Amino acid sequence: MVFFLYLLFTTSLSLLTYLLLRRSARFGRRRQHLPPGSLGLPVAGETLQLIAAYKSENPEPFIDDRVARFGPVFTTHVFGEPTVFSADPDTNRFILQNEGKLFESSYPRSISNLLGRHSLLLMKGSLHKRMHSLTMSFANSSIIRDHLLQDIDRLVRLNLESWTDRVLLMEEAKKITFELTVKQLMSFDPCKWTEKLRKQYMLVIEGFFTIPLPLFSITYRRAIRARREVAEALSQVVRQRRREREGGEKKNDILAALLDDEGGLSSEAEIVDFMLALLVAGYETTSTIMTLAVKFLTETPLALTQLKKEHEEIRERKGESEGLEWNDYKSMPFTQCVINETMRVANIISGVFRRTVTDVDLKGYTIPKGWTVFASFRAVHMDDNNFKDARSFNPWRWQGYSGPANSVNLFTPFGGGPRLCPGTELARVELSVFLHHLVTRFSWAPAEEDKLVFFPTTRTRKRYPIIVRRCREVPVQAIVKNDVKA
Fold first, then answer.
1. Cis previous bond, 456, omega within 30
2. CB–CB of 85/67 below 8 Å?
């Protein structure tokens, strides 16, 4: 009975809030000239239509239909808030470039609660600028060339050594990227501790797009519990490293830089928040691109043949167990075309939410202070006006690419502005090394049909199962021996 009354009360309150919003939005549209659009159904708005579209293989109609009716900047109501959607590349760039001035980062409470307020994703102002710069300093070209490339090559090869018969590619890719990120952050090699940590992370990520109420969401409750365990595990590492640092021992990783940075994060809890979020960023997105690159290549045999040729030529110049070097990475032009096209078609990050910090004049409209805006990268990437036959996987389009004059606004897989992903080059290197060892050591075929979905995140329904056959053997001892020599 109590639950029924509570449900009745909250539903009534939601309906009243919606009607007030709708009335104020109509009034505001006349007074402040909001972009045209529709607030949809009471309470739910257009959230159900958005989720239904993104749970399918073809999410485009949600935005395409509204762009056709209202134009590339339109008003809707999703996830409980009136929201201005942008499918316009110039508007997207304006939103990204004015971070901290007209807009601020905004994410659902479920995500912010699980990441922690000192995660890079949620930081603002001078602290965000400082910590973004610190993160980039560990993922620039010189650091990757001189320090990280050897670890990336070694960990990819060791993981591929365990592959036999049927493989769930998305799971294996996540294992690779998690181990690489842990190595970069804390200098840990793969072990039982890192595998246990990875399994807890999977539970945390599952809670990102849930109702942030432990009482009503089992998934969110499980995610909160896993988050506590991850935080405790990372706290133990931070405490141990502080003791080692006091004894004069020092490592060259991001945790060491955080402990040395006196003007940045000071407390253990702040450092844990920061590291926890970086692990999520390095783990989830790159592994999905790895998986979808293989899926798209499998479905495009000519592209796979050309990619294999490029990597066989590199392998012919090297010994069987010899690792990749920076010059090898720089001699993979078609690989970069494949990576670009995979990111454009897959849209691992479909866009970003921001919140206005003041009334914003945009394309002749006024967006009120406190409103949510969504800059849709996917809408731009999949628009035939920006990319010919945009919904086709065509890596050759990037060979000698010279797009329109505003092409800097058209391709934004890593975001832009002050929040440009600090790991852009590192992700490309990881993907390139993975594709090199995959195509030179294995052939494969899909074990069964698998389809893409885009909600709550971009992924394949069945984790992309493949049957692998080894073409080239490289003994583990040779890999380890070669790395020790290096």
1. yes
2. no
Q: Are β-strands 166-168 and 81-86 bridged in parallel, bridged antiparallel, or unpaired?
A: unpaired
Kindly give, in sequence order, each residue whose CB lies less than 8 Å from that of residue 458, ignoring residues fewer than 6 positions away. 288, 292, 346, 347, 348, 350, 452
Task: State the DSSP H helix or E strand holding residue 84, giving kind and residue range, or none if neither.
Answer: strand 81-86
156 φ, ψ (degrees, to nearest 5): -65, -45
- 168 forms beta bridges with 465
CA distance linking residue 364 with residue 400, whole number of Å: 36
Q: Which of 189, 177, 274 minimizes the C-alpha distance to 234?
A: 274
Mean pLDDT by 10 residues, the chain (486 residues): 36 46 46 84 83 85 93 91 94 94 87 89 88 90 93 95 94 95 93 93 86 81 95 96 90 91 82 91 89 98 98 90 94 97 93 94 94 94 94 94 65 90 93 97 96 85 95 60 48
pTM over cut 0.85: yes
Edge-to-edge strand list for the sheet holding 372-376: 73-78, 81-86, 372-376, 351-356, 103-105
CA–CA dist 354, 371 (Å, integer) = 8
